[in-house]
Amino acid sequence: MQMAMGLKRWMAMLAVMMVALPSAWAQPAKSENLVYVVGTSQIRNGDMSTARQEAIEDGLVTAVSQTLTELLPSESIAGNFQVLNESILSRTEKFVRDYQVMAESPLGDTYRLMARTTVSIDRLEGAIKAAGIRLGKARYPRVLLCIAEKGFGDDGPSYWWGGQPALGGRIAASALTKALIDAGFKVVQPDTGFAGAGLPAELSVEQAQALAKRHGAEVVVVGLAVVEAAANTMGGDVRSYRATVSTRAYRASDGRVLTEIRDSALSAAEDPETGSREGIENAAALAGPPLSDQLAKAWFRQGAGSAPITLRVQGIGGHIADFVKFRGALGTMSGVDALQLKEMMTDSAALAVRYQGNARALADAVLLLNFDTFGIDIELVGADEIRLRLVPR
After folding, report:
1. CA distances from 158 to 29, 52, 169, 243, 323 (A)
2. Which of 28, 148, 319, 338 could form a disulfide with 157 if both were Cys (CB 3.0 to 4.6 A apart)?
3. Confidence grade of residue 62 (pLDDT, cut at 50, 70, 90)
4. Best-predicted range by mean pLDDT among 16-30, 121-135, 204-218, 343-357?
């Protein structure tokens, strides 16, 4: 009787385990991707065999491309398209584990087929990492907009960095800000109370970099919105105006030009102020999307090949556990592509960090890390070096 009771209890436990275990095993780490694709090719000189093979190859490229879009954000693919094309899309046989043609049909000089493909995610991720491209969500830089505006009939341009009223030069900036934020960028709010000490409307590269540094921005976009009279097409008191918005984006760390965008738009109004405002709004709305698109491509392209930042950590003597915690947190921080220990001494260590941003941006991100047993003091931020100290609490 006792044995029967024990057997029942054992079987009940086994039943619970059988129910519980699948929930833990049901969703293992995904290592393959099943993709159904349509491949297309052209039939040349009636050569059906070659057309079929080319259609298969076209379908395999589509399968690998579709899997890529699931692993990488679109801006990373666009910014690193050349290296992805060379290392992955032109070598699909390395990443497609198998395929099966399910249906095929020629029509005129076109051959199409449907294939069931299995793409290896493990191999694809390995190739992406080997190419120096970061998996996961891309980190967008902080952007400062310095757009001067000159309406029709104005004596000169208005701009916030000249200590002018807060609304000066903000019509174009508002439209550009919306486009940049919609694309994922972080737009820095300018210090409109800042007295520019004689800074001109058309900033030099060095002046733009200084403003970006003051505001903690990694990219600075300088430009001018200007309104001129256009041919009157409506008659009466209504006049036409042409507004042109010209922008140039610099990387704040070294002044490198990332992109340049120029766009124009027409407006019509009875008074110049209304015509100028509407014209600038229209031109900036046109310039915003290409500016954000080209800026994202340029930023992520240069980020993939950027040199590592040296992080020199002091104060680890007798507190090696704190250093291990710090290094672990740094390695999982958003924007960090790679982390390598360069040297280890009694009281200090040097780390090589590949980061999607400059040294100042990395230092700012490090300061946001929080630990129970120690704090972080940033002692120096250079062009490609950061010196910090771990301070026990």
Report:
1. 56, 64, 5, 15, 50
2. 148
3. very high
4. 204-218
